[in-house]
Protein: Diguanylate cyclase
Amino acid sequence: MAFPRKSLTIFLVAAFVLLTAVGLWMLDGVFAADGFGDAAGGGNIFVPFFGLSIVLLAVVVAWAVWPLLRPAGASPHIGSDEPGTVFPRPVDLSSGEIPDFSHVEIPVSEYALETYKAAVDHAPAAIMITNNRGRIEYVNEAFLKTSGYSRREILGRSPAMFGAGHTRSEVYADLWQTILSGRVWRGEVCNRRKSGEEYWENMAISPLRDRFGRVSHFVAVREDITERKGREDGLRQLAQVDALTGIANRRHLIERAEQERRRAERFGQPLALLMVDIDYFKTINDEHGHAVGDQAIRMVAQTCAVSVREIDVVGRYGGEEFVIVLPGTLPEGARELADRLRQQIAAIEIVGADGAPIGVTVSIGFAAFESGDELEQLLAAADAALYRAKSLGRNCVVAVTDFLRREPPGDVQ
Ligand SMILES: Nc1nc2c(ncn2[C@@H]2O[C@H](COP(=O)(O)OP(=O)(O)OP(=O)(O)O)[C@@H](O)[C@H]2O)c(=O)[nH]1
Structure:
């Protein structure tokens, strides 16, 4: 049970005064009884009381003086290896709120401090503490292991030293705004190890307040998520790519085409869409087998993919049908590319089932985006042009004219 220091001191002082008074009164009584008194008899009664009060006085003095004699740990600093190191009080990360403990006196024993320090030093998550001027004051063992730096290379520097340069400036702006307003920031950031290798970290950064409620430090708890990120990227890639050809699958193609359509509408930029279909593909399949058919599909997809710019989107729209989205491209440019593609594909030779070379040709229809077009309309227009190219004898390119868009199929350009 803990006694309040103040009450106990008052009690001890009162006991001291009482015992001293009783002792003096008795001494007085003895002297009053027989003049100078019987030194032996009077002394016998007085000594125990006076002795007890002296002991009490010693206890009171020791009680008052003891705190002043304790070992100096008065101005501990973060991250020191010396005994008495104090860490700022942690913030409850779960609620996102910063509790205000500034009015609470928390007596912390040396033993408890050592325990806290060991827990933070050897925590499995990487932990970094920066001061409110953005200088690193503490990193734990896991942080050193993840970053590859030594403590000497890190302390006193800015956390910017770990940045890989890929994180957008808005992310950092949001981070500072959040923590300076006293809230916890969470996010994923790409950093660089000392070896130069990039790695992804999931971070929670929370402000720490001093006893006056001022933000004095920031503590960052960081988890290396590079492996998980890699798996996610792989899965995303798998979900977007056509397994046979390696180009965008139908779903991803439509997503990207819709993005480009919206961009063209918003900024009034040109956009063209090509639909490419292998001619007489059923015959290739029937005469040479599906493996040779697949080979033809792969060759055509590859030729399309390497013939366009990086901003263009090439995807497999159906079995032997491909769509190419050309942002910022006028009809003349689209026609030029379509003609070039048709010729390049016609030059492809694949080996048939009998070992003899097989020629592959394509028909191409294309349409230019017009303001107000939905993606379905654009696709349907290119498909109508492709249909016309097929009916013209195949291995040719047909553009959608305004006429063709308004009227039912009947004329070609
Ligand atoms: N080998 C292979 N064949 C496929 C694949 N997807 C679709 N096909 C086949 O492609 C053929 C397409 O035939 P059609 O639509 O009649 O077209 P086509 O024979 O090329 O005739 P035109 O387009 O009019 O020149 C069908 O036989 C499908 O089974 C695929 O991934 N691999």
